[in-house]
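Entry 14. Two folds queued back to back today. First construct below, sequence then structure tokens.
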Amino acid sequence: MLRPVVIHRGRKREGKGFSLAELKAVGINKLYAKKLGIPVDERRKTCLENNINMLKELIKK
């Protein structure tokens, strides 16, 4: 399963889902992401470049 990278207290770890800002940067909405099986975490506010690149690669496939 695809999981985003989250920075918490200066450490990188696996997150619960992609933030809405990351989904918006790729051009998909929450409902479409859930249809594709992409986990979404509405509580997250950050938008990390690594996660955006992961989503772009997934959308290309």
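Second construct, same run, same settings:
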Amino acid sequence: MEVEPLPHGVSSSKVIGLLEYLDDHHGKEDIYKLAEAIHYELGELLAVIKMAEMLGLVETPGGDVVLTDLGRKILKSKVAQRKLIIREQLKKLKIFQHLIETLQKSEEGRLSRDVVLEELARLYPHENAEVLFKTIVNWGRYAELLGYNPDTQTLYLDEESFPARPQ
């Protein structure tokens, strides 16, 4: 299965910040001007843009970053609605689809951190599984799609998004 990894270390606040900047600049900016204006290293900016693009919030035609209608909708939404939109977009990403399916098939709807790390290392042998795990957990928690218990080191589906299964 070809599953594209998430850009490392990109938070929801960085993506929202990118959307706000674009909105303030008529919804479009050249990537290099954008890097200079917001004082990001190009690599960091490209990771933020990639995450926003994976979520369908921006497009990148010909060296520009362009706000999509969904990106504009996010900006006009309250926090709860933003989380719902992001949740639905995350569900479209193959890595989240794979994790959701794996969690749903697991006996208790939970996976240990070690099992998830092994799976990430298998799917992405050239990526840092630990960093990718943290990125997935952060986005999953933000969107109230996934939960993570650091005490038991288990990943689980958020009960609000996935009601309990019948016994």
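Quick look at the second one. Residues 12-76 form a domain with the Arc Repressor Mutant, subunit A fold (CATH 1.10.10.10). The chain has eight helices and six strands.
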